């Protein structure tokens, strides 16, 4: 009897607290074990965290760094450029082991990565090792034989260019097409799966199964990397989707169908990550669907955002956040730019294409399309990756192994031509030592990382491993920026990067808790900015960059711009000092221009102080003199996934 | 006659017989025919047919097959004559191709043979240090930021003396840092990825149970209280069998390759001319490149 009496008193206390009904609530309740007053009951039953701050805490406490886009010799073009390392070697380097690069030099990362996706081209997967080995089916074709002889005779780079051009122009001789029905193709896919299964080490290192779907019609880059959440038992039940007919297609809608088919057949999960809109010549983020001439419809929007939750916003072939033409008021927009044409430079770039190529503008187009068709097709999060074709995910500025094996460190690479097309030339110095994907996952497993990617709790970096937090909500205040653990406030009072704010409660304005911490062995931070994009009352797309936290005592000038942080780079010695900048930046920011009736997104951009670019390290090591147009310092940066605001209804 | 019943004896006799027959046979056939004529058997025809079918997704017509056959025969004839004229000598492509074929062969054969259970266990025992669980540490830390204080290390030091005097019931708050202030059961790699390698090494060397510091990281100065440290323990063979097998395969492939090459070096001998030696040691001139 006594027990049940106490139980019911406790229940009453809980109910009164939970329902907050003053009529029922009693401030004290006497019983024969003492007096339970309201304060005591609150102590017992409040939803606040337990005394131990770690009990029941299941949010991610550190970002996991990796690369979702690495090619090995299994990719036909990588092999042609001299890559000899296969998927197993790629995983070993990522795990922190030393390997011998294709050029014979030892290679090792400054520290291990947490995860890696080997994403070899699905078309002609395994073609290259066979070409090199001189398999009879390839030697029977005159072009195949010529390429084989070129490569074996030391003309691999020339062969590579021919192979890539032939592929992107759809002129690959028929007998050389490795269709998914061929045995060679099957065994290459099985090899890829086997390497990932062997390297995968749940809790310590995640080796994802994946491939790249390389839609490249007319040289216009619509590539996507496909990543599996599943293990080999499911992934080996399918063959990667290709582009070349009759088995494949160059239309992303067909890739999405293939993805749906995989999930239906196996009960597994896959996602796709597009990249290099800058080489798509206006086709990556369309409002009029290429090929059909029709405006993006709801079906396209729904499928795209279902399958493509992330975008690879920075990599070796240029940065894709924004472009000076699109963001004329952003003094940091001109960064590692590749805007001469499409992938093989067969078509020049014109300014009207840019708006459909870069992440920031695509996010704005997404808001606009959401207004038209009811679904935002471009509601993606951000990651960076390498797209290296060497089997080496090595994009640190002082440890850059280049885009292809022919571009591994040498005295010549800062002056050589990389791509020469009809419409222009790109030099090897223009390749950018970038980037990595940072994922806020609570554990290092395929499942946890994949799920974090699906909820877009990710950010892109250009190769540095800075830690970046970005939370949005309606109730953050200054006090949240001085707590010992900003993440606790962030997760309890708001949503992390990649999330939705929902509609604003009456009179409330979006607030953001932001924090960044420099790479523990890298450079200090210059500033943390918030980029806001919105569609105004007239239906026009707008953007604004706000400086939110910065190092030192700098004050914004009359134009509202914060002065530059300075530059401590000593180019001749390829060195810099952390005498400027700050190791950490934490702040709370409230949108000063909020209009509750307008759709908007917000994302964080964190800049490091200037450090030497890879070209400066090359010049120092090889004792070469760089041409005057070659940049020697760089401000590494991170882009967080956005947080979206949508008005009610 | 014990010897006659000895298996080794049987073996030797049989071996000698076989060897003799082989010698006689090969000599005889060589004398009769310098080289067999180009021979087209059912195997060749099947191979041509299949190759064609896999490329074109249909069977070849008979005239296509005849053409393929003619190409094959011509190729074989030309190749033979070229070999007879010694055109395969000193040819980079031929040499590379032959070396490559043999490399593939070696790789293939070593990947087939898996070790016995015993062999694998012995391998595991010789490399026990590679197969341990990671050492782990649980610690608390207080951060002193160079952005907030002119001399974070000195202030951390002062705070440490205060803790020593008052006990650590109420350690100072420190400055905010976008990291956790306590970590439980983390390994060296994790601490290193969060705070940098120097900090990680220092923390793993601290005595558990009392506050120490200042410990420097890339961010500033820290006071650190190690709560617990667990040494890594040797894995049980059964738990890491798969990893050991992978390691063994890689080790074996290397080993076999090295042994094979060493064998070849012995078999053929390698001599570097005294005149070549200075040429080998010459460093290339560094040229300035534009």
Give an account of the 3D structure:
Chain A is α+β, with helices and mostly antiparallel strands and 649 residues long. Helices cover 25% and strands 22% of the residues of chain A. In chain A, helix 4 (87-94) packs parallel to helix 9 and helix 7 runs antiparallel to helix 8. The longest helix of chain A is centred in the first third of the chain and has 18 residues, at 2-19. Chain B is of the alpha+beta class and 290 residues long. Chain B has helices at 2-5, 7-32, 42-56, 62-84, 92-112, 117-126, 152-166, 188-195, 197-205, 241-268, 276-281, and strands at residues 136-144, 182-187, 211-216, 221-230. Chain B has a 4-stranded antiparallel β-sheet with strand order 2-1-4-3. In chain B, strand 3 and strand 4 (221-230) form a beta hairpin. Chain B is elongated, with a radius of gyration of 36 Å. The model of chain B is unreliable at 28-33 and 286-290 (pLDDT under 50). The interface between A and B is large, with 57 and 45 residues.
Question: Biggest interface in this structure?
Answer: A-B, 57 and 45 residues
Order of helices and strands of chain B: HHHHHHEHEHHEEHH
Quickly give the structural class of chain A.
Answer: alpha+beta
Shape of chain B: elongated
Q: Keywords, please?
A:
heterodimer; A: 649 residues; alpha+beta; 3 domains; 16-stranded mixed sheet; four-stranded antiparallel sheet; 30 strands; disordered N terminus; B: 290 residues; Chitinase A, domain 3; 11 helices; 57% helix; elongated; disordered C terminus
How would you summarize this macromolecular structure in one to three sentences?
In chain A, 25% of the residues lie in helices and 22% in strands. Chain A has 649 residues and is of the alpha+beta class. Chain A folds into three domains: 2-45; 64-451, no CATH class; 466-645, no CATH class.
């Amino acid at each position: 009897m006594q027990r049940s009496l106490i139980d019911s008193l406790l229940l009453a206390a809980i109910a009164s607290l939970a329902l907050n009904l003053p009529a029922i609530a009693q401030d004290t309740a006497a019983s024969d074990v003492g007096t339970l007053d309201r304060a005591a009951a609150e102590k017992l039953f409040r939803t606040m965290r337990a005394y131990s701050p770690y009990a029941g805490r299941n949010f991610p406490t550190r970002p996991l760094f990796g690369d979702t886009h690495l090619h090995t010799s299994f990719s036909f073009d990588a092999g042609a450029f001299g890559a000899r390392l296969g998927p197993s070697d790629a995983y070993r380097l990522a795990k922190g082991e030393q390997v011998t690069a294709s050029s014979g030099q030892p290679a090792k990362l400054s520290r291990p990565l947490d995860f890696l996706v080997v994403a070899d081209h699905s078309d002609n997967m395994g073609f290259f090792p066979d070409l090199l080995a001189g398999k009879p089916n390839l030697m029977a074709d005159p072009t195949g034989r010529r390429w084989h002889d070129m490569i074996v005779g030391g003309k691999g780079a020339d062969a590579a260019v021919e192979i890539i051009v032939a592929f992107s122009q759809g002129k690959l001789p028929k007998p050389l097409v490795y269709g998914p029905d061929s045995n060679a193709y099957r065994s290459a896919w099985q090899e890829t799966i086997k390497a990932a299964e062997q390297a995968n080490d749940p809790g310590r290192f995640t080796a994802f199964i994946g491939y790249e779907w390389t839609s490249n019609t007319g040289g216009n880059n619509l590539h996507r990397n496909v990543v599996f959440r599943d293990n080999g038992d499911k992934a080996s039940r399918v063959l990667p989707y290709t582009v070349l007919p009759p088995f494949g297609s160059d239309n992303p809608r067909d890739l999405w169908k293939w993805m749906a088919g995989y999930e239906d057949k196996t009960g597994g999960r896959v996602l796709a990550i597009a990249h290099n809109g800058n080489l798509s010549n206006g086709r990556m983020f369309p409002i009029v669907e290429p090929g059909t001439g029709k405006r993006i419809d709801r079906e396209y929007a729904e499928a795209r955002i279902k399958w493509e939750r992330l975008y690879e916003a920075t990599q070796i072939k240029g940065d894709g956040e924004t472009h000076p033409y699109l963001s004329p008021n952003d003094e940091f927009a001109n960064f590692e730019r590749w805007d001469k044409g499409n992938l093989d430079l067969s078509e020049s770039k014109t300014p009207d294409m840019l708006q459909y190529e870069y992440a920031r503008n695509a996010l704005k187009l997404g808001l606009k399309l959401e207004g038209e068709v009811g679904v935002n097709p471009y509601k993606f999060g951000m990651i960076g990756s390498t797209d290296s074709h060497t089997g080496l995910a090595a994009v640190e500025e002082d440890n850059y192994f280049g885009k292809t094996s022919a571009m591994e460190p040498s005295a010549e690479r800062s002056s050589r031509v990389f791509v020469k097309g009809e419409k222009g030339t790109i030099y090897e110095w223009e390749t950018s030592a970038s980037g990595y994907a940072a994922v806020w996952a609570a554990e290092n497993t395929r499942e946890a990382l994949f799920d974090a990617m699906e909820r877009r709790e990710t950010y892109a970096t250009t190769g540095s491993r800075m830690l970046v937090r970005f939370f949005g909500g309606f109730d953050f205040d200054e006090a949240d920026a001085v707590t010992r653990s900003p993440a606790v406030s962030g997760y309890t009072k708001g949503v992390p990067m990649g999330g939705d704010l929902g509609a604003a409660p009456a009179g409330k304005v979006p607030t953001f808790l932001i924090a960044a911490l420099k790479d523990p062995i890298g450079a200090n931070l210059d500033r943390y900015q918030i980029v806001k994009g919105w569609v105004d009352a007239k239906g026009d797309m707008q953007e604004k960059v706000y400086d939110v936290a910065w190092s030192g005592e700098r004050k914004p000038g009359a134009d509202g711009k914060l002065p530059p942080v300075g530059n401590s780079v000593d180019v001749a010695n390829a060195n810099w000092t952390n005498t400027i900048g700050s190791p950490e930046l934490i702040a709370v920011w409230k949108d000063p221009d909020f209009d509750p009736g307008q759709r908007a997104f917000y994302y964080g951009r964190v800049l490091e102080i200037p450090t030497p670019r890879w070209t400066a390290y090359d010049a120092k090591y090889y004792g070469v003199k760089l041409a005057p147009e070659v940049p020697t310092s760089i401000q590494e940066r991170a882009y967080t996934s956005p947080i979206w605001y949508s008005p009610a209804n | 006659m014990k010897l006659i019943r000895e298996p080794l004896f049987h073996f030797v006799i049989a071996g000698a017989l076989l060897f003799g027959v082989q010698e006689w046979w090969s000599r005889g056939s060589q004398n009769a025919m310098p080289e067999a004529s180009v021979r087209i058997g059912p195997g060749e025809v099947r191979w041509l047919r299949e190759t064609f079918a896999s490329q074109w997704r249909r069977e070849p017509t008979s005239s296509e097959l005849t053409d393929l056959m003619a190409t094959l025969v011509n190729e074989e004839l030309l190749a033979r004559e070229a070999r007879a004229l010694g055109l395969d000598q000193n040819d980079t492509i031929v040499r590379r191709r032959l070396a490559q074929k043999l490399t593939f062969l070696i790789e293939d054969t070593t990947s087939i043979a898996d070790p016995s259970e015993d062999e694998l266990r012995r391998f595991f025992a010789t490399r026990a240090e590679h197969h341990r669980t990671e050492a782990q540490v649980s610690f608390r830390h207080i951060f002193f930021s160079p952005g907030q204080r002119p001399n974070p290390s000195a202030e951390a030091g002062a705070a440490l003396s205060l803790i020593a005097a008052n006990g650590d019931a109420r350690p100072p708050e420190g400055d905010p840092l976008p990291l956790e202030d306590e970590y439980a059961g983390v390994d060296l790699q994790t601490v290193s990825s969060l705070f940098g390698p120097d900090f990680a090494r220092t923390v793993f060397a601290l005595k558990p149970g009392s506050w120490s510091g200042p410990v420097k990281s890339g961010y500033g100065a820290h006071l650190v209280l190690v709560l617990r440290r667990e040494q890594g323990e040797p894995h049980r063979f059964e738990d890491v069998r798969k990893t050991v097998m992978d390691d063994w395969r890689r080790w074996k492939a290397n080993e076999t390759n090295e042994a094979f090459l060493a064998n070849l070096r012995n078999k053929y001998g390698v001599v570097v001319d005294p005149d070549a030696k200075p040429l080998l040691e010459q460093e290339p001139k560094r040229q300035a490149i534009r």
